[in-house]
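This section describes the prediction task in plain terms. A model, or a person checking by hand, is given the sequence of a single protein chain and must write out its three-dimensional structure as a string of tokens. No templates, partner chains or ligands are provided. The sample shown here is typical of the held-out split.
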Amino acid sequence: MTDMTMQDGCARKCWIAAAVIGLVVILFALGGHKGFLAALLLGLLATGLLGSLFTWLSCAPVPKLAERSPISQLTPSVEGEVPSVPDHAPAAPAPLMSEPAPVVEDTPAPAAEETPAAAPAEAPKAAPVAPAEEKTTPAAAGAEDEGGSQPEALAQPRSGEADNLKEIKGVGPKLEQLLHELGIYHFDQIAGWSPAEVAWMDQNLKGFRGRVSRDDWIGQAKVLAAGGETEFSKRVEDGEVY
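The expected answer:
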């Protein structure tokens, strides 16, 4: 039986085994509620892949080993026996006489020039420290800061009697006392504040920031300074507030 016949028989067996497995795949696919066409495609795909794999693994020809050389060519020659040289081998060329190499006298190498050592780098001088700027504080009266300028203050109320600043909506007993500490005793003082002075008061009323602008002290103070009344001031005079 030739190698070709054996390979054909091996390939036939491999494809038969692959076809049986493909049939099993079709049956499993049909049992898994797959369509007939899908089951058939799966079976054919499994048959083709497994048939090629089985044929490649089982039926591929095994490479033959190269012929070994005769033992006589591998064994060394007997000691003392000179190997024969073929007649047609070219004769070895006569060695050429080499000229003697010229003698070079040893000459002392020039001494390396001494280079002066680099001078040490001077340490950078520290920059002079600028003197710290002295903080200045504004004066008590008419001082200006980022929030505006402080309104002009009175050392004491005129005629020894202050206006009832609580008639201004937003000014309670505590805030009235704070205004007295800042030298504010009368309605006309508040009515004459400039925008910068209003900004200063909004920033410096501790615990009541923004109250001047929010409650419109200027508008209320102008009415009260002119001898008029507001709805809130009437309630204060009637004792309904505070």
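For orientation: The CA atoms of residues 64 and 140 lie 115 Å apart.
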